[in-house]
Amino acid sequence: MKLMVVGGAGYIGSHTVRQLLGAGHEVVVFDNLSSGHAQALPAGVPLVQADLLDPAAVKTALETHQPDAVVHFAALIEVGESMRAPARYYRNNVVGSLNLLQAIVETRKIPLVFSSTAAVYGTTDAVPIPEDAPLHPESVYGETKLMTERMIHAFHVAHGLPYVILRYFNVCGAAPDGTIGEDHPNKTHLIELACLTALGQREKMMIFGDDYPTPDGTCIRDYIHVLDLADAHVLAVEALAGGKQDAGTYNVGLGHGFSVLQVLDAVDEVTGRPLNREIAPRRPGDPPRLVADAHRIVEELGFAPRFTDLKEIVQTAWNWHRTHPHGFEE
Ligand code: UFG
């Protein structure tokens, strides 16, 4: 198959491009490089450097490259920033996705795989969280993802657009060979920050709250390795190509979680450089426990994550950060 990967130069996009190529598919990347990195793409992968906010460019790309399906990652992803700059988030994430949907139905009506997030659930008592849990996003970021999910569904009803929506839990890790990995302009993710702290780029790790109702008092998250997540996209694309007719929304996680302290202990062990730690106040908006009910994707798409050992997950992140302490800007 030929896939157009929108946002393919980003962290998750670039790992997915690799897995798609490895599964024998052809790929063209559409990315505005606002936060992605052309260096993250394997040699020979065509890059259309353009913006989803330019509807003509989107249509031209689909007409020129004639893909069989689209995988859509392109979005702004920072929860805090989304609260300070809502217009940017609604415009980029919602209007950008609307332009893509419109271009798809006007040109080729090909299947779409969309990157959504566990942030659509908001704070919930459900442990683990099933896909049909109530949807109450607490950030503008989560709201833009939910609005896009609903637009996609409306295009499915109105135009027969086939789709799969994947709701990611805490994506982490890197390609084990250390050649590509996480490199966002603003670092907020636990494992990335811990690795950069181990490299001496920060003085200490702040633990945001140790008085949560969890066994060790710190928050629990479902850490899913970026290559397993990339494989979930390959499965989704292949299910759609195989004629999967029913549109599907799937959590992507391991189905069990690790606490902040467990993660930091794993980083200490992997790096051999024990982190300075400090207990800090709770971070606003952090629910105590976010764990996926991942049965649906396992049962319906045959998802079988390979990275289930926390130390192994951290080791892949460390391989990347150790060899690229300043990301792609070496
Ligand atoms: N944490 C710390 N110290 C830090 C950074 C994080 O204690 O320096 C804690 C957080 O408070 C949280 C946990 O580590 O309890 C994980 O935090 P991250 O920032 O790595 O990830 P989040 O759980 O906040 O959010 C991520 C994505 C969201 C997605 C969510 C789904 O960024 O988009 O996972 O579970 F919705």
TrEMBL record:
Source species, domain of life: Bacteria
Keyword Lipid metabolism: no
Keywords: Carbohydrate metabolism, Isomerase, NAD
Pfam families, per the entry: Epimerase
Cross-referenced InterPro entries: Epimerase_deHydtase, NAD(P)-bd_dom_sf, UDP_G4E
Cofactor: NAD(+)
Domain NAD-dependent epimerase/dehydratase span(s) in chain numbering: 4-253
Reaction(s) catalysed (UniProt annotation): UDP-alpha-D-glucose = UDP-alpha-D-galactose
Pathway note: Carbohydrate metabolism; galactose metabolism
Isomerase listed as a keyword: yes
Enzyme class: isomerase
EC number(s) per entry: 5.1.3.2
Family: Belongs to the NAD(P)-dependent epimerase/dehydratase family.
NCBIfam families attached to this UniProt entry: galE (TIGR01179)
Assembly and binders: Homodimer.
Name by which UniProt lists this protein: UDP-glucose 4-epimerase
